[in-house]
Each structure stands twice: as C-alpha cells, then as structure tokens.
Prior knowledge:
Blueprint: H1 9-20, H2 36-40, H3 62-70, H4 75-93
Amino acid sequence: MRKLSRLTTAQASNLKRLASMPDSEIDTSDIPEWIQTDFEHSVPFSSLYKPRKLQITTRIDADVVQWLKSSGTRYQSRLNRILRQAMEASNVRGDSPSRKRAGSGKTVRKQVSKKGRR
C-alpha cells in the first residue's frame, strides 16, 4: 500500500476554503454525471473490505497441511478461505459462535488449575 504524504500548506488551505463553501458554489462541471450504466459497472464498497490479519500459532494435523500444500502455493490463504466459508455457513445456520465445541452442542467450560486455588 502506498503511503500518503502530508498535505502542503496550500493544499490544506484549499481544502478549508472548499469545506466552507456551500455546495451550490462549487464548480463540478469537469466531473461527468453518473448514469445508470456507471452504477451497473461499479464495485460495491463491501467487496473492497479486507479484514485485518492476525499471525497465530496453531497445531494442525500433518496430513491436513500436506493436503493444503499439495495444491500449490498460498496454502495459508486457502486455509483462511476454508475457515471463512465454515464461519459464514455457521452464521447462516444460526449457530452461536460462542464457546461451543465443534461437532457437539456441549459448552466448553474454562479449566481452572488446582494450583491456582487454595
């Protein structure tokens, strides 16, 4: 992603001047009006959204990793896509994302160490 440079003093004052003007006084003659076909070819904003990525450490069965890697490069992106599809399918079914074990209706209880209690 390209880093944005700071505005110059002239640019900042120009923006302030534009912000204080009523819309009717702003010359938009160099901007063409959108017509129906422009809207039909536009990209929805939601498709531009990229969720923030987190680097984690997890244990995955070796045969699963081998299967992912056998399909070529970018196996981590494919794993993310598979997990996202499962998450979205779960949301469609109305499954609660809270503390349920995969494949069971049992709620996972927090394990408390006996060393921590007296």
